[in-house]
Design goal:
By secondary structure, the chain is mainly β. The chain has one helix and 25 strands. The protein has one domain: Distorted Sandwich (Beta-galactosidase, Chain A, domain 5). It starts with a strand and ends with a strand. Its cofactor is Ca(2+).
Length: about 260
């Protein structure tokens, strides 16, 4: 477990996963073992969304890639590259064509293995500041690689009627629940505020959109995304791709009001 600390806050990171963010005694992150979801954060890469109706195939310029929901990145582990009192950097490296075991097989998938036809390096870094927690994603290696990126943090809820504010509009938890597994689309948005017992604002660079998901009332996932996957049929998911240059950088900042 990696721990980051300053005077106001502490951050707990388990193998690259944000499992705790406590500010002035208040825990903002959904805890594993609580109802709703077995994780607390993850990444969606190189695709976002399900592909079961597309025979678990996604079209790329190098041919079809075998993927499952939200891509293969989450299926292998981060390595800790560096750490200080307030920063930690994790990295994943992938060699084109490497087969990765699919944890959804056989219960939820017909594909035991996933693969991707491009090399990539994926870096996730945390930086605890006086105003919040910065999470930065850096994608490097092979140029012209198509991809989507989504960040999938889950926030612990305390009140019965929390409100999500996006683009000056209020979204209720009931509205998020009503959409179900597709997740509520929040297009053209770079900042969302979750108003609960305490407030936290999530600002982004590079993503451009959000989606919100939950199946319970004790947590909600507020997810920065580069593309909303349900905007197209699964067989056309490649329409949501963008391309890596030599390096692509995406940023998320969690800014609690309690600081």
């Amino acid at each position: 477990m990696v721990e980051l600390k300053n005077k106001q806050a502490s951050v707990s990171i388990d193998k690259g996963e944000l499992v705790g963010y406590v500010v002035d005694g208040h825990e903002f992150i959904h805890q594993k073992g609580s109802p709703g979801w077995g994780s607390s954060d993850t990444e969606m890469f190189p695709i976002i969304g399900p592909v079961d109706q597309a025979n678990f195939r996604v079209s790329t310029p190098k041919g079809d890639a075998i993927q499952d929901q939200h891509g293969l990145l989450r299926q292998f582990d981060y390595k800790l590259i560096s750490q200080s009192e307030t920063t930690a950097v994790f990295q994943k490296n992938y060699k084109a064509g490497t087969e990765i075991k699919n944890s959804k097989y056989p219960e939820k998938s017909t594909e035991p293995l996933m693969s991707w036809p491009y090399d990539f390096q994926f870096e996730k870094s945390y930086h605890l500041t006086e105003t919040g927690l910065e999470v930065t994603f850096k994608i490097t290696e092979e140029t012209d690689m198509p991809f989507m990126l989504g960040y999938h943090p889950a926030f612990k809820l305390y009140s019965e009627s929390p409100i999500i504010v996006a683009n000056n509009k209020e979204i209720t938890l009931d509205e998020v629940l009503a959409v179900g597994s597709r997740a509520l689309q929040v297009p053209d948005c770079t900042s969302i505020t979750l108003k609960d017992e305490k407030e936290i604002t999530i600002t982004t660079e590079g993503f451009g959109n959000f989606m919100c998901w939950t199946a319970v009332r004790n947590m909600v996932c507020i997810e920065p995304i580069s593309f909303y996957p349900y905007a197209v049929e699964q067989v056309n998911l490649d329409q949501g791709f963008q391309e890596v240059g030599e390096e692509s950088v995406f940023k998320v900042k969690l800014m609690p009001q309690v600081l």
